[in-house]
Records
---
Amino acid sequence: MEGRSDHPPVHRETRFDADVARYAARAKGMVASEIRALFAVANRPEVVSLAGGSPNISGLPLDVVSSLLSDLVLQRGTVALQYSTAQGDPTLREQITDVMRLVGIEANPDDVVVTVGSQQALDLVTRIFCDPGDVVLCEAPSYVGALGVFAAYQCQVVHVAMDDEGLVPEHLENAIRTLAAQGRRPKFLYTIPTYHNPAGVSLSPQRREAILEICHRHDLLIVEDDPYGLLGFEGEPSRALRADEPARVVYLGSFSKTFSPGLRVGWALAPHAIRDKLVLAQESATLCPPAFSQLAVSTYLANHDWQSQIKALREMYRERRDAMLSALDDLMPPSTTWTKPKGGFFVWMTLPEGLDSKAMSPRAIRERVAYVPGTAFYADGFGSQCLRLSYCFPPPDRIREGVRRLAAVIEQELELRDTFGPFHSGRRKGVESPGPDLR
Amino acid sequence: MEGRSDHPPVHRETRFDADVARYAARAKGMVASEIRALFAVANRPEVVSLAGGSPNISGLPLDVVSSLLSDLVLQRGTVALQYSTAQGDPTLREQITDVMRLVGIEANPDDVVVTVGSQQALDLVTRIFCDPGDVVLCEAPSYVGALGVFAAYQCQVVHVAMDDEGLVPEHLENAIRTLAAQGRRPKFLYTIPTYHNPAGVSLSPQRREAILEICHRHDLLIVEDDPYGLLGFEGEPSRALRADEPARVVYLGSFSKTFSPGLRVGWALAPHAIRDKLVLAQESATLCPPAFSQLAVSTYLANHDWQSQIKALREMYRERRDAMLSALDDLMPPSTTWTKPKGGFFVWMTLPEGLDSKAMSPRAIRERVAYVPGTAFYADGFGSQCLRLSYCFPPPDRIREGVRRLAAVIEQELELRDTFGPFHSGRRKGVESPGPDLR
């Protein structure tokens, strides 16, 4: 971002004109997010940012990690600092199967491919499956980083509606049938069934069964993205879709929310044939994921009580979720609605009729509160009446203050609306690129 | 690799058939290297591997690295373990410009994009420039990992001949003209001008001028890959092409050969407009490169005498280069020829007429010596009379022993040839995927 901001636009234009004709078609869809500028401002200390999705890692036992990594270099430095295989470290892959067991998955380490965060897993899955124009089914709204990948591979995203129980089976069935009537077949369903980003809802057990049945009947591949699955606030973790349909689901996992995003260690669990293609794709993409990061995670899992650490994270995020929901209940004007997450990082808010979250955003920033406008989470420009609030990073008192400021901004917007009539923003083209603080 | 080897092929086939119809066109070009199996064997201790391109990192000051990383976590853990920006850490990008100054490059840190090894830089450059069917000019032979990337993006690779002074300007000119006559224009020239992998030659200063002049005249973009530029055995480092043509060259650098491949830190230096696209491509590919790896390299550069470390590496590799060249002089049968590298890791050997490096490979393995057959370095199946020998990893005495074994194998092949006539292998289709030990 600092890079993008500090050289003269005219200079960029000159260079740009010289090169643009040579770019690949896919590059034309790569455009900087309209809300980047807002993010630059949102990161100012006086602004309460309810926009970012970065985990709060202040609770990590840095002394433990420090000595583990020190020992790693001394004892296994020539392995940790050397190339690894493209598939990833066998011990780590074994440990990853232990982690997945917590969401009901029984897997063979041989079917795991380690990736540079689960973002890269999604990039590689899309790389091996999607030709330009191919259809990918996504929830409405969907993860902005996934929409960025699908745009980069020139996929056509078809959104399928959700409600408070997550993806709606009837709408999925209809979307598949409508496409079939056009002679089109989606490459896969991309879904975040548990603690959805940005919607903050989870797929109910009955819904999971129904979704699996529909995908089975239509022989549709499922890409299950599960970065928040272990960060639930109530009872046991939800059972992953992959747990009941090993041959039809590519499961994407990550240590970014449960340990450290800075190591960039995620993974894909896939049927053998797909796993083989993912390994080959990883080889041409990076040769291999960072050995050091892999062994760092591996030694952390082996030598630290990571499950208690996750329990502590759950407590911290639950307290923040509670702070946000009670602040919303206390402070938001009527006719503003929002979801009630049972885990994860996000609340999805719907503004009163006639309000526009992107138009409101600069005014919110001026009032020192930031959020992500809903349009970022749609490939088709919808979502202007919605916005994403995250409670993962700021402490509870800041969350309440942020909600207070946001409520005031919405009140002002309502006055404007009632005086001048509803705001109608034109529908935006293209996809917001994820941006460093949008994950 | 271990993954690929230990499940029954029949099982894989079953799954494969179920999914193959759905893969993207680009995935059909992703096939496992024919020589992977050989590599599995080549890694046995009794085999002298002259095949691998992994740097010898045994000389790294592990105690220093250990305490630097320990301090990094204690003092800056919440930054090093958190997401970074897609472009990469500003301090590291500043330090990268210091590194590039050693090859004559004056650059603005704002034009540097940090990548997951320079392999990913090449992947991202190809991603933003190349549509399926686009032509990329490469040296003949060229880096196998680059050919893997170009295959993954469905590029057409046109090889341009080299000699002992590197890429031959007349052949480059002819290739461009021939394509122009077909109404085709290459997207860029991919070149490793210094200590070429696999050819072991370097572009002479006069040649550099000539190549730049030709690319300027034809307005051709250059992608300069320079992983070995600081690992020369004689005099000062060669001046990078980028040093004299900032607006026309995308320069790819890496810390894999000068510090650690396991951290996967490389970079691209590009004109602003291209830099912008690379940052957006990085966001959808990985969100951001590993912060920990970036700060690890940054603290190493800031707190250790890295230039002396590189000097020590040069001495070690020079001794091994000398060991290989003298062994080749002493032991190889006449009519076998090879290049005399002035830096880097590799010697390129041409076998006597009628011998085939791939057909010979299993017999070489049986005699406990491994190399990479030349066909791996061509997109078009050429190179069967050539092979790559690397001296980077085994100690000098093992290198000599490996060459002794290889010479014996070649002698046997010559006997077979003189008895049964020349061996003619069919030309192989497709590209060898780089594989974990082929870089």
---
Amino acid sequence: MAQLQNGHSKKQLDIAIVGGGLVGSLEALYMAKRGHRVHIFEYREDIRKTPLARGRSINLALSVRGRTALRDVGLEEQMIQNHGIPMRARMIHRLDGSTYAIPYDARTNQCIYSVGRNYLNGLLLQESEKYENVERHFNHKLVDANLRKGSMKFETPGKENIDVTADLIIGADGAFSAVRKCMMKQPLFDYSQKYIEHGYLELCIPADESGGFQMPPNYLHIWPRGNFMMIALPNQDCSWTVTLFMPFTNFKTIDSEEKLLGFFEKYFPDSIPLIGKEKLIEDFFGGSPSPLVAVKCRPYHVEDRALIIGDAAHAVVPFYGQGMNAGFEDCTLLDKLFQKHHDSLAEILEEFSLTRWEDTHAISDLAMYNYVEMRDLVTRPSYRLRKAMDDFLFWLAPNFWVPLYNSVTFSTMPYSQCVKNREWQDKMLTYFIISAMSSALLGYFVMSR
Amino acid sequence: MAQLQNGHSKKQLDIAIVGGGLVGSLEALYMAKRGHRVHIFEYREDIRKTPLARGRSINLALSVRGRTALRDVGLEEQMIQNHGIPMRARMIHRLDGSTYAIPYDARTNQCIYSVGRNYLNGLLLQESEKYENVERHFNHKLVDANLRKGSMKFETPGKENIDVTADLIIGADGAFSAVRKCMMKQPLFDYSQKYIEHGYLELCIPADESGGFQMPPNYLHIWPRGNFMMIALPNQDCSWTVTLFMPFTNFKTIDSEEKLLGFFEKYFPDSIPLIGKEKLIEDFFGGSPSPLVAVKCRPYHVEDRALIIGDAAHAVVPFYGQGMNAGFEDCTLLDKLFQKHHDSLAEILEEFSLTRWEDTHAISDLAMYNYVEMRDLVTRPSYRLRKAMDDFLFWLAPNFWVPLYNSVTFSTMPYSQCVKNREWQDKMLTYFIISAMSSALLGYFVMSR
């Protein structure tokens, strides 16, 4: 029996975390800090020992929700100071190669950070080595589980299966979660997976000859082209990870080097010298576009024995930069529930399921919508006018009028509340505009008499 | 090589139908008529040899889409004449036990038919015995399949697994389809399953002492009670299958015989003497409420090798009485595509996927909405006024104004078109009403001068 600081005498729980990615390894730290025995089971090799896996986004945008979680486990400073590259604005690339910036937070100059997935994952795993009550098991693939009983079967490198039981199974095993697949056998489990008709393909802008950045680094660069777009996030080594998002049908039409170069000359001419023609051809035809899926489900738990978090519970499309942040926030909220319910699993898991889904559904819908904003709306005068009005009102009354993007990215307001706020703001603006026009008209009639 | 009547020389295909229920056995007849070799694999015993499975709805509403399919395979007459019980109206039971009827089709007196699931399933299987090119394999459970290769593994009664390959696998294995589970491993497969918060429980009103009906038989009886309802459909033996639909949370609160009788005395007093107190208690506590799920997915096929139809592709909640009818319509449409594309599977399956999902999504949404109509709206004056207006306009201009229920139930208009029609009718009615009120107001002002 472990005696924790709040004075409650509690059982030390055996917690099995399936998935040693970003969310799983963060959750391990939270649980280790609470004094529980934690086992991480990861089906891949130890990421600290392996080169980059191709086809996975190698950098990510860290914002306030993610930072809050890292602060809780004592890693925020290290992450931000030593590694994160601040991005203060979107840098829009026009067809002619000219650019302009749209700040994320014109008022207080807050920023998001481009961080390396592997670096952050390694850092979290490394931190877990400091806890005696955490064990890591790599190359362990979940092949079956009885979630009600807390029992699992893993395939190990020697191909021998091992059986494990735990007081709590936490599935943090990503968008194609094996734990969730077991959960789907439960009655009354709502589930949806939706693929968008667009795929993505990663390219690279290398560092320049002197090892510096080829583009201004403190921006998220965007080439919005209506039905498709390209973006670039900076890396520590002064390279850029460039991602092309486009309908699969468009990818298919680009089936020769000539067509590829023609396409880039037409739509992304300024990027060709940065990427390099040869490298562009090599990377484009060396990979194939990956699909993007949004997963929604509920409930997230099975009785007092199993829970899914992160992408396993709510994979979102990447266009709000909130996938990792939402997963990290799961861990933060879960920790608060452990505190509130004194580690009583039945209550913790039920409250998490009941209270979290509305927010994750909200960010999923926002992310879906933001793709349209990023690739198309961002270039329109109506968008820029609205953004200017939002920024002005935010400057005028920062506690009263927080624009949607800012509440999602730079606050920990529940996502569903961010959406409700925006709906209210839309109504207010419509009302303002109608009032202003009515007053103007009235004034005109009065003055013209 | 089989020489079919249209003169095209074609390969006789090996078709494996997984599921020998209503849709699977109907599809077998369609395919047998086209000259293909058909194997039905059903995981249950032969339904013709087994007593009723508890917990499955034992009667169903057959309407025009289902009848059209039965006509195609030569079974409509037999089904309607010898077995179906016509239901010409909804019979609404008020709290005080008084009733009133709402005809389904006041204009031409069309009706829906209450048919026994087992009888119809047995009839379809029996008919398949007439074809030498159909084989039935009962107690065969699909455990795995490679849909791209057309290979399947079945568990048989002796627990030995057998391997089967086919040119085409048709999954007609219901809402929890094993074929669909294999399909989910395909990339870009959209899928959703949604459970409603209501469950259902089946009760029974037996025949009276002289073997006759205890209620007027040519009606679908409804006890609408706002958030829940009870319905009854007539059976051949003059009994009624009674189904109580109610939130699971309400079911839970009825945990004693006193509470059950109190509940029925309050909400369904006229049904107690019909069901019988003892039988009510026995059936209510003998079963547990079953869940209701709606499944949507797309695409329905894998290359030129596999397809899902019926509930496997689009399980709907039962409130429009269209589940079986929509599944039968799948078979009819599929047969037309076989004709159109001369049995060329790649084209048939792709067109089915591309064209069918919009209609199945439409009927799924309609069925979800109809639950609210049946248990609540049907009792409101606004509903009865709209119904009267619809009926009048339908009588006045039967080709121009077909009410929603009639187009869904008594026509083969695509479901999505039925919905679009209704939206157009809503707009027209709003326009009529505003015009009429404006004219009346104008008239009043002119006359009062």
